Amino acid sequence: MLGTTSQHLASRVHQGNKKKEGIHINLKGFAIGNGLTQPEIQYKAYTDYALDNKLIEKTDYDSINEMIPDCERAIKSCGNDGVSTCEDAFGVCNNIFQSILQIAGDINYYDIRKTCEGSLCYDFSKMETFLNQKTVRDALGVGDIEFVSCSSVVYDAMTRDWMRNLAVGIPALLEDGIKVLIYAGEEDLICNWLGNSRWVNQLAWSGQKDFGAAPTVPFIVEGREAGQLKSHGPLSFLKVHNAGHMVPMDQPKAALEMLKSWMQGKLAATGTRDWISPQ
């Protein structure tokens, strides 16, 4: 759920820093990996992504797209009419995603190259066993709290925010020079790179036009292209090759190089480092 939380945290920290509230936190930037951030844009990308990757046929595409107007109306209600309408929007819009899955079969919707195994499409049992060892819990200082890979209680509670536009605070951060990296593994369906690319390109800030005109360049790791990068000023978007929803798991070297380069200010494409914040 980092697509729904990281920007809120960054906005709150940045606001606190500007108002000199409490301890100054040296926030320089934040990243979102395969997140759901702007659902009104991203849900409309599901059918395009599915068709491009041959998960559905053109007749399926046309049929499922008939659900999009209802989804758009439901999302607008979520933004205006409170919590229950947001829960309703989640149900309405998820019909789009579920319709694709019914046609595509038992694919892993986090990585369309694989089949879905188990309730989460991955076997995280070894990780759970490791994290629930007493020595590990003591080292982390979490007491007797049990780690679970996906808590249904947390999941259900966060569906209330699922359909909100969570990109609204990002432009103000960009204007103040806070670096933002949006990256996405190209094999992920559920939070696919296409929908993420679209909301990033449509983000309304002073650098929007120049970001749109910026070149897409290869992201090179150990002499090979590991992705496609687009940058302007403090904003970067990276599509990672041969990776699904969890880029660090699928492409650990590329993920490490991405973060190291970004934190060192070396990720940006040619010519973007001349951008100056208007503030």
UniProtKB/TrEMBL annotation:
Q: Tell me any Pfam family this protein matches.
A: Peptidase_S10
Q: Which UniProt keywords apply?
A: Carboxypeptidase, Glycoprotein, Hydrolase, Protease
User: What biological process terms from GO does the record include?
Assistant: proteolysis
GO molecular function per UniProt: serine-type carboxypeptidase activity
Question: What is one GO cellular-component annotation here?
Answer: vacuole
- Family of this protein: Belongs to the peptidase S10 family.
Q: Please state what the protein is called.
A: Uncharacterized protein
Q: What is the lineage of its organism?
A: Eukaryota, Viridiplantae, Streptophyta, Embryophyta, Tracheophyta
